[in-house]
Amino acid sequence: MAQITSCSEKNEITDLAQKQSEPSVRSSVILEGCETERRGLEIGPYFQPVTDRSVHDVLYVDCCDEGELQRKFHENPEAVGKQLPAIDAIWAPGRPLADCVGYEPFYYAVASRVFEHVPNPLGWLQDILDVLQPGGVIALVVPDHRQTIDFFRSTTTLAQVIGWSIEKPVRPTPTQVMEFLSETFEDDSTIEFDGVVPLFHELKRHYTDQDALGFAQFVEREKYYLDVHCTVWTPESFVDVFSRVITLGQLDCKIIGPIEGFVGNGPEEFLVYLQKNMPAKPGVPSGV
Question: Are strands 132-143 and 253-260 parallel, antiparallel or unpaired?
């Protein structure tokens, strides 16, 4: 796996950034930790894929079918002038990823701005690790809630992550829906997150508490998949929670990062890698 190991290498990437467009630079930095010369996955590419099919041997995976993606695409004002790539495999909620991608070997997986939407993050990560070869890497780009509409929400805890891995929700739960809709606000791009943020009750909201309650009841009654931010992270909280998850033996990987302020990124996101452990050698104690 390629890694940035010296100041000179970091400077080379910075110089490269001055010669390329921001999306291209962002992608090159995200993929720096991946074996992109080998077969990979991108999960939830939508209209802003990190990988490039003309360059990378990559399979595009999404939880939505083509019709649903097209509907979201045409309703999204940010998609104007963009293209929606075809999806190779649908990862239907509740199905193992391996069943959906044909059990072929992969050496890396990329998911940009997807992780926070997943109702069972530990189960989701385990499913991806299951299709990766030993040493394979998951590259995650995750929003830092302190720079987003999730500003007032509490970070996701170890207890929540473990609880969801036991309960195995296949769609956002009523609690996740209620929390997102009742604790977020409408960002009109005037909020200075690094300055003084107005009090929550002073901000315009997309949904009232009554709306949030109604949606929470609806998703439970109709078993409806309402796409919300199920989890909330900072770089520090991600490392804390998943370091403890690994210590508990619930994921067989190591954390590389997080990387904040990487070249070409948005101010509200960080990059982190999870690398699948190599199998222990016979007769050699674990960790040696």
Answer: unpaired
pLDDT in tens, 203-215: 999 999 999 999 9
Give the pairing type, strands 40-43 and 58-62.
parallel
Asked if residue 135 lies in contact with residue 1, where contact means CB atoms within 8 angstroms, the answer is yes
Is residue 286 in a domain? no
Question: DSSP labels for 198-261?
Answer: PPGGGS--SS-HHHHHHHHHHHHHHT-----------HHHHHHHHHHHHHTTS--EEEEEEEES
75 is written with which tokens? 């309703």
Residue 18: its pLDDT value, please? 41
Phi, psi (deg, nearest 5) at residue 67:
-65, -45
CATH number of the structural domain spanning residue 228: 3.40.50.150
Domain count across the chain: 1
- In the chain, what percentage of residues exceed pLDDT 90? 70
Query: Is residue 150 included in any domain, yes or no?
Result: yes
Q: Which residue has the tokens 């930095």?
A: 29
d(C-alpha 214, C-alpha 230), whole Å = 17
Structure tokens that stand for 252 in this block: 């067989």
Q: Indicate the SS3 state at residue 47.
A: coil
∠ Cα 167 211 65 (to 5°)? 55
Say if 14 falls within a structural domain.
Answer: yes
pLDDT tens by residue, 149-178: 999 999 999 999 999 999 999 999 999 999
**pTM reported for the whole predicted model:** 0.86
Please report whether residue 72 resides in a domain. Answer: yes
Q: Which domain holds residue 272?
A: 7-276
Q: Is 239 within 8 Å of 271 (Cβ atoms)? A: no
Helix 22-30 and helix 7-17, axial crossing angle in degrees, nearest 10: 150
